[in-house]
TrEMBL record, chain A:
PANTHER family: FERRIC ENTEROBACTIN TRANSPORT SYSTEM PERMEASE PROTEIN (PTHR30472), FERRIC ENTEROBACTIN TRANSPORT SYSTEM PERMEASE PROTEIN FEPG (PTHR30472:SF24). It comes from Nonomuraea endophytica. CDD domains: TM_ABC_iron-siderophores_like (cd06550). The chain crosses the membrane at residues 20-40, 73-91, 103-124, 136-156, 163-184, 211-229, 256-277, 322-342. This is Iron complex transport system permease protein. Its main location: membrane.
From TrEMBL, chain B:
PANTHER family: IRON(3+)-HYDROXAMATE IMPORT ATP-BINDING PROTEIN FHUC. One of its GO terms (molecular function) is ATP binding. This is Iron complex transport system ATP-binding protein. It comes from Nonomuraea endophytica. Coiled coil: none annotated. The keyword NAD does not apply. PROSITE patterns: ABC_TRANSPORTER_1, ABC_TRANSPORTER_2.
Automatic annotation (TrEMBL), chain C:
The keyword Transmembrane helix applies. This is Iron complex transport system permease protein. One of its GO terms (cellular component) is plasma membrane. It comes from Nonomuraea endophytica. GO terms for molecular function: transmembrane transporter activity.
Length: 350, 260, 343
């Protein structure tokens, strides 16, 4: 791998060229996808108009963009980035490419509380009321996600946090949540079930600034913190004996990194639901693009944002005027690409 | 010749590591391959043990192309122990050694008295009988290495290929493992091929040395023939003095550095 | 086959045999409970009467037409999922591997939902055929993807990731279909929740050949898997054909899981949890791990089903929920109490 040391006045970082290329290429692609996405609506625009109207407060379309289209596009990108970052952290700590926030109880916990909310309120009011879907669902999801994480974390902690035990406890807790969710879906009215299914697939429909801000804040605080933790993650990749030898205060850094992963996933899930596949696939796609040994944090986040933004575009245009939940499309878009990368790399090696 | 590499080309993917190499291993000898890191020693050993298929040339086992012999058949003739192999946690020594009997078992004959006898003998020979019930991960490095060699022995072959059997061992344990290898050779005239890093131990325990650099054999012969000051410079880029080992009478390589 | 292993260690073998007998005992108990307990409790003597010389009494009919098929399906599915889970985790050496990892579960779901929407399938037997076909196609597809460009068979990581990707893809398509079709959603949500109730005898005959074939392949796979667990190089040294071993393993998992989930819904988390329980008593020897996993899987599924019948009268609770609510906490408690046996 080509890498350079960047040294400015006593500070030094290792900079990897492929990482830089993926990061910047990803950002450009992201902006483009968001612009394409923001064209869509009752008032059609060209991509050029999207750009000019965004920055021109006097134009009539400015309001539409600022109040409706931009927040939705931003929610998608930020939620994707947060979930992917969360997945990258967990995969590094568990040293397992199949790990995702699901084993931390976050997304499954959020899903089960939301489905319960829908089914219960459906039974009472004969349908999901507006208040529940706009305020209640995010609150329920945040509560459920954090509660799920606390349960997993608490059960897995035993004189320290062992990566393997965390995974096994996570499996158990996720099994409870998932199956209770399945059962709840059979209890309620089939319309409520469909409503719940849209939410637990992950959807960006009607997302506004109130969905953007929490995720943006979480990312703003947690991205720098997790990047600081990268060094310890690199050490965590090795077996526990080696890690201790490398002098990482393992439990503390592990616990903090997991906490960051939990918060990212919980806030993202509260905004858009547990958008499927992003957290698992983005880190795996990113590490193959960059050809690094373990999930690169920043590039994973960017891949997650691109994947989610691209999926949202497809979700709105594929069956237009019917809009699919974005979480249904992320896998349709991401899975073939991941498989392509898998097969291409296998070919290169043998 | 028991085992022979004829004009083999070896590599991983597009990367060629060894090209056009010839090597013969005579029956009943202990042959040790030496050379700097990345010279293709382990790659060659893997090819000799049919763990790696050559992209050109052939490996011959007892004069027959090894690729045409059924892999289970090969496993009854030669055993190859890879560098630092790993076992699942909790596996006991006896269980590990018993898995060496795999090539002798079929779905209708899972555990014969031959199997049992071979495992017992292998455990005895490596001095592990008392540790048989202990999980592998609780053993010391030297004991663990002996357990793997014991598995290779249980396989009941008279041709053993060992890839750096002394990695991660302290000097005492290195000697212990190599003494064991020599015993195996002395007892039943087994043919042994090893990759070793320590030139002096290699000189002491091998009948024949093969020196490699950049994927080719630079010299082959007895330790006295191979370990000369010129050759060590050629193979390792290292200035050294070769004296006589006061204990074994074999060559002893003393490196000359710039600091004392 | 298992009784002749490890003569070397009489003590260990004794312990393993004791566990085998003990687990078989638990399964027998579960079977008896499953036949006698339900909305209408049937005393043991009446149950025996129904099994040996039925005369058409009310309990004879209940037992022969309802409880017996239900119990038989529970045994079959439990064994199948337990064994498939153990195989899958052994091949991938990944504790997160479940029997559905190769796309089997989602393949079945996709084919069933598609058959409802596009072909108007309405009969249970019809669904199951489509489910089986979907499972087979998905799994073969994943294995082929894993094979692309690789010699000596797919690596476990490629296989697992390809499987996860294909599963997610199929699940996405299934979600899209059920969101657009209410009738399919209604069938799907009950299938998803998992149940062995009201399946009838035909279903058992339908899945039995697949499960039997899968179990046979699993038994053949056990010793190869033992060799593979020492790493690919050592396995090859021991004369094991790695690509063949993986192919047999995948075929077995596909048959077992495909048949079980097509008939009973997505209960594949049984296959996720059961091998971790079985590994505690068997250690890493797959010749013991597979039978233990099968027995534990069947016993767990039946007990969960029995509890589901009595816990919420007059209705029933699906076995999937019961198992998750009772089995998973038990599993977590076990994981906490002792150091887990790693793969």
């Amino acid at each position: 791998m080509t890498s350079y040391a960047l040294r400015i006045a006593g500070l030094s970082w290792q900079v990897r060229l492929r990482g830089l290329a993926v990061t910047f290429g990803g950002l450009v692609l992201l902006v483009l996808l968001m612009a394409l996405n923001m064209r869509i609506g009752d008032l059609p625009m060209t991509v050029g108009e999207v750009f000019t109207d965004t920055f021109d407060a006097s134009s009539p379309a400015h309001f539409v963009i600022m109040e409706l289209r931009l927040p939705r596009a931003l929610t998608g990108a930020l939620v994707g980035a947060a979930l992917a970052l969360s997945g990258a952290i967990i995969q590094s700590i568990a040293r397992n490419p199949l790990a995702s926030p699901e084993i931390l109880g976050v997304t499954t916990g959020a899903s089960v509380t939301v489905v319960a909310g829908v089914v219960v309120s459906g039974g009472v009011h004969g349908g999901v009321s507006g208040l529940l879907s706009s305020v209640g669902m995010p609150a329920l999801a945040l509560l459920g996600g954090l509660l799920g994480a606390v349960i997993v974390y608490g059960l897995a902690w035993r004189r320290g946090l062992d990566g393997y035990r965390l995974v096994l406890v996570g499996i158990g807790v996720a099994a409870v949540f998932t199956n209770v969710k399945y059962w709840l879906m059979t209890v309620g009215d089939v319309n409520d079930t469909a409503q719940a299914m849209v939410w637990i697939s992950g959807s960006l429909h009607g997302r506004g600034w109130e969905h953007v801000i929490p995720v943006a804040l979480a990312l703003a605080v947690l991205i720098p913190l997790t990047l600081l933790g990268t060094r310890s993650l690199n050490a965590l990749r090795f077996s526990d004996d080696t890690v201790t030898a490398l002098g990482v205060r393992m439990n503390l850094s592990r616990a903090l990194m997991i906490l960051a992963a939990v918060l990212l996933a919980a806030v993202a899930t509260a905004s858009a639901g547990p958008v499927a596949f992003v957290a698992l696939a983005s880190p795996q796609i990113a590490l193959r693009l960059i050809r690094s040994a373990q999930p690169p944090l920043l590039s994973s986040a960017i891949v997650g944002a691109v994947l989610t933004a691209g999926a949202d575009l497809l979700a709105r245009t594929a069956f237009s005027p019917i809009e699919l939940p974005v979480g249904v499309v992320t896998a349709v878009l991401g899975a073939p690409y991941l498989i392509y990368l898998l097969t291409r790399i296998r070919k290169g090696r043998t | 010749m028991r085992l022979q590499a004829v004009d083999v080309k070896l590599g991983y993917g597009d990367r060629v590591i060894v090209d056009g190499l010839d090597l013969g291993v005579e029956a009943g000898t202990v042959t040790t391959i030496i050379g700097p890191n990345g010279c293709g020693k382990s790659t060659l050993l893997r090819a000799l043990g049919r763990l790696l298929k050559p992209s050109g040339g052939e490996v011959l086992l007892d004069g027959k192309k090894i690729s045409t012999i059924a892999t289970k058949e090969v496993a009854r003739i030669l055993t190859v122990l890879p560098q630092s192999p790993s076992a699942p946690e909790g596996l006991t020594v006896a269980d590990l050694v018993a898995r060496g009997r795999h090539p002798h078992q079929t779905w209708y004959r899972q555990w014969s008295s031959d199997d049992e006898k071979a495992v017992g003998v292998a455990l005895n020979m490596t001095g592990l009988s008392d540790l048989a019930e202990r999980p592998l991960d609780e053993l010391s490095g030297g004991q663990r290495q002996r357990a793997w060699i014991s598995m290779a022995l249980a396989q009941g072959t008279d041709l053993l290929l060992l890839d750096e059997p002394t990695t991660f061992l302290d000097l005492a344990h290195q000697v212990e493992v190599l003494e064991l290898v020599r015993d195996l050779h002395a007892q039943a005239g087994r043919t042994i091929v090893m990759v070793l890093h320590d030139l002096n131990l290699a000189a002491r325990y091998a009948d024949r040395l093969v020196a490699m650099r950049d994927g080719s054999v630079v010299a082959a012969g007895t330790p006295h023939e191979v370990l000369t000051e010129d050759l060590i410079r050629e193979v390792f880029d290292l200035d050294s003095k070769v004296i006589t080992d006061p204990v074994a009478g074999t060559p002893l390589v003393v490196p000359i550095g710039s600091h004392r | 086959m298992v009784a002749t292993t490890a003569v070397k260690l009489p003590q260990l073998r004794h312990r393993r045999l004791t566990w085998l007998i003990g687990l078989t005992g638990v399964l027998v108990l579960a079977i008896v409970l499953s036949i006698t307990i339900g909305a209408k409790a049937v005393p043991l003597t009446d149950a025996w009467h129904a099994l040996t010389s039925p005369t058409g009494t009310e309990s004879d009919i209940i037992i022969r037409s309802l409880r017996l098929p239900r119990t038989a399906l529970g045994i079959l599915a439990g064994i199948a999922l337990g064994v498939a889970g153990a195989l899958m985790q052994g091949h991938t050496r990944n504790p997160l591997a479940d029997p559905g990892l190769l796309g089997v579960t989602q393949g079945a779901a996709f084919a069933m939902v598609a058959s409802i929407i596009f072909l108007g399938t309405t009969s249970l037997l019809g669904f199951i055929w489509f489910g089986l076909a979907g499972a087979l196609v998905a799994s073969v597809g994943v294995f082929a993807l894993g094979m692309v460009g690789g010699r000596g068979g797919p690596t476990p990581v490629t296989l697992a990731l390809a499987g996860t990707a294909v599963s997610a893809f199929l699940y996405a398509l299934t979600s899209a279909m059920v969101l657009l079709d209410e009738q399919a959603m209604d069938v799907f949500r009950f299938w998803q929740s998992g149940s062995i109730a009201a399946r009838g005898t035909e279903v058992i005959w339908q899945v039995l050949p697949f499960i039997a074939a899968g179990l046979l392949l699993a038994l053949l796979n056990a010793s190869g898997l033992n060799a593979l667990s020492l790493g690919e190089d050592v396995a090859r040294n021991l004369g094991q054909n790695i690509a063949l071993t993986r192919a047999v393993g995948v075929a077995s998992v596909t048959l077992l899981t495909g048949a079980a989930v097509a008939a009973c819904g997505s209960l594949s988390f049984i296959g996720l949890i059961v091998p971790h329980l079985a590994r505690r008593v068997s250690g890493t020897d797959h010749r013991w791990l597979l039978p233990y996993s099968g027995l534990i899987g069947a016993a767990l599924l039946l007990l969960g089903d029995v509890i589901g019948r009595v816990v919420a009268p007059p209705g029933e609770l699906e076995v999937g929920v019961v198992l998750a609510l009772l089995g998973a906490p038990f599993f977590v408690a076990l994981v906490r109490r002792r150091k887990p046996v790693r793969l």
